[in-house]
Amino acid sequence: MMKRAPPVSSSLFSKSQNLWLIWKLLIILSIIFLVMTLARIQFYYDTSPQSYSGRVHRRSQLPMIDDEGFEGNPRIAYLFLVRRDLPLDFLWQSFFENADAANYSIYVHSEPGFILDETTTRSSFFFNRQLSNSIKVDWGESTMIEAERLLLQAALENPSNQRFILLSDSCVPLYNFTYIYNYLMGSSKSFVDSFLDMKEGRYNPRMSTVIPMRKWRKGSQWTALIRSHAKVVAYDDVIFPVFKKLCKRRPPLDSSKGKQNLKLQKQHNCIPDEHYVQTLLAMNDLEGELERRTVTYTLWIQSATNMETKSWHPVTYNYATSNPQQIKNIKGIDHVYYETEHRTEWCHSNAILVPCFLFARKFSRDGAMRLLTQGV
């Protein structure tokens, strides 16, 4: 008589079924992880510096400007970024009146709706030079660099504009028009104050998928660009959105907000206009085409606010401090030291040692008037 095989216990069958489900779950999770990894690699590739350079220069992203092989008289585009009017227009009137009109263009970004005419400016050189698409600008916000880009876009529509100098409403020229024209046109490079920013907590790690920390730069917003670099800034559609989202100014201290204030103070204090152009050009591997310094002088001092916090502020030159000796000292500067890079930048234009600065800020009305009357 044959013995019957013992029945398979239900518990053993259940264990086998559970084991199969576990393996099935592990396989599914492994596939999901693999897909996510491949997607992340592809995303990094799409936003890496190498692929980014190609995106910036895609022909489809540039306006239809026929400037290839431009022949003619090159101009400097003077781009004024102002709050409302131009308080030092009388000084600029003197600057432009002895210049050849074929050598310059003027563009002004003012508050929306403001018109430059005989009722709002004393200089006819600024009549109707305001942008029609200006925006409201807040200091320390991305609107500042958005306004700069609007100025560049407007100036790029004229193929004869070959140099682009950004100026504030408190800037003054240190030399006559001809000297500045020859200085800028004599160099094939842009003048962009740019250095490594390793000390301050302005870099937001959330930027790292697009902007690696090694490419993070800081510097003065007052730049002088050649045309090819102006295009990179004006038509960038990758780095600017990152700045708009992740580079924000920390709110001022407000003790009345208690714990909420402490939370706000932990945010990265990122000032977009001090990082954007520098970081953008570094991302495009264009630093070899720069004189890594500004041509606009600013004297910075550290001061304490009423909240007992220290911050840096630009000195304003009034009548007393706008004396000939002070201006002579500024014009005599021939190098700049960058502490974070242990780098001394000797000031050159086309490999020739030159004074560092062509413009200076911040000047009050009476300070600018003294420059004009004393012929400094």
Question: Which features would summarize this protein structure in a list?
Answer:
alpha/beta; 17 strands; 376 residues
Structure notes:
The protein has 376 residues and is of the alpha/beta class. The chain has one domain (72-374). The protein contains eleven helices and 17 strands. The strands form seven sheets. Strands 2-1-3-8 form a four-stranded mixed β-sheet. Helix 4 (143-156) crosses helix 6. The radius of gyration is 28 Å and the shape is elongated. Keywords: Glycoprotein, Glycosyltransferase, Membrane, Transferase, Transmembrane, Transmembrane helix. It is found in: Membrane.
In short:
The chain is an alpha/beta fold.
- Read across the widest sheet, the strand sequence of neighbours is 2-1-3-8
Spans of at least 5 consecutive residues with low confidence: 41-60
Helix content: 25-40%
- What is the CA-CA span between the terminal residues? 125 Å
Can you give the mean pLDDT? 84
Annotation, overall tally of beta strands: 17
Q: Biggest sheet, in brief?
A: 4 strands, mixed
Number of helical regions: 11
Number of domains: 1
- Give the helices and strands as they follow along the chain: HHEHEHEEHEEEEHHHHEEEEHEEEEEH
Strand content: 15-25%
